[in-house]
Design goal:
Length: 168
């Protein structure tokens, strides 16, 4: 076996389910930040987790507001979502700048991209320092689906966003 870096390994372990962390800014806008590491931790009670860089504006908003929605974007907004990752919500309204239509959920103030397959509405339970990232542990309040939307996955070390196809 050849030794490689953990970053290089991410290219060989894809796809990873892409999620958009949706948070509310002090101006009452929804900020969008794509992440590819999240996981189910418990089904009784319902708990999920995700990781974000310590410098992340969205992470700051999660810690401040204690609320977050994880939305799994559909294929029709792949390009806009990929661009979201290279912009900072500290500086601009990403949804407005990238023409991403946002919709309300039945509960709460945080909106999600209109073409999302799943939206998981959460409350922050705890944070854990993990090197250059924070790990966010969240209790799940509500889960919504639009089954006709095809979810995106990060491929080739997060270089491409594409759907995953199930083998028969």
């Amino acid at each position: 076996m050849q030794e490689i870096s953990l970053g290089q390994a991410s290219k060989f372990t894809s796809p990873n389910p892409l999620t958009v962390v949706c948070t509310e800014t002090p101006a009452g806008k929804t900020n969008l930040a794509p992440v590819s590491w999240w996981n189910y931790l418990s089904f009784n009670p319902n708990i999920i987790c995700f990781a974000m860089a310590k410098t992340s504006y969205s992470g700051e908003m999660v810690r401040q507001n204690k609320q977050v929605v994880l939305a799994m974007p559909g294929t029709s907004i792949a390009d806009a979502i990929m661009t979201c990752g290279s912009l900072s919500g500290r500086d601009i309204d990403k949804a407005e700048e990238l023409a991403i239509e946002l919709i309300d959920l039945p509960e709460g103030a945080i909106k999600v991209p209109a073409h999302s397959r799943i939206a998981i509405q959460c409350q922050l339970m705890n944070t854990v320092e993990a090197g250059d990232h924070w790990l966010y542990l969240c209790t799940v309040d509500h889960v919504y689906i639009v089954a006709k939307e095809e979810a995106l996955f990060a491929w080739n070390g997060y270089a491409k966003l594409r759907p995953a196809k199930m083998a028969d």
